[in-house]
Amino acid sequence: ELEIKKPRRWDKKWRLVIFDIPEGKKKLRDALRRRLKLLGLHEFQKSVFIFPYPCEDEINILVNFFDLQDHVRCLESVLSYDADLRQIFKV
Predict the structure, then answer these.
(1) What pLDDT, in 10s, does the model give residues 48-87?
(2) Cβ pair 76, 15 in contact under 8 A
(3) pTM assigned to the model
(4) Within the chain, what is the greatest distance between any pair of CA atoms?
(5) Residue 40 and residue 89: Cα distance in Å, rounded?
(6) CA-CA distance, 73 to 68, in Å (whole number)?
């Protein structure tokens, strides 16, 4: 049972999880999507999920569990025009 601990204050950085998983690994891709949603990440695009708090350790656990190291990347960024995302996450 993975859980992402939310800090008291948001650092105004967004965490993006991007992936390009081949069709031959469709079941793993779908399982990863389900787990990311269960962790509270928002599907920004079909293969891009976003979260406002640090979550790299939890994502690494998932990536290693599903053996998808060659297909998943984590980014940390500041985004413009993020009012919709701030509303979704209440930050």
Answers:
(1) 999 999 999 999 999 999 999 999 999 999 999 999 999 9
(2) yes
(3) 0.94
(4) 41
(5) 9
(6) 10
- 74-79 CB contacts, 8 Å cutoff, 24+ apart: 74/15, 74/16, 74/17, 74/18, 75/15, 75/16, 75/17, 75/18, 76/13, 76/14, 76/15, 76/16, 77/13, 77/14, 77/16, 78/12, 78/13, 78/14, 79/14
- With beta carbons less than 8 A apart as the criterion, state whether 28 and 20 touch: no
Chain position carrying tokens 């009012």: 83
Whether residue 14 contacts residue 79, with contact meaning beta carbons closer than 8 Å, is answered with yes
Q: What are the φ/ψ torsions at residue 18 (nearest 5 degrees)? A: -115, 145
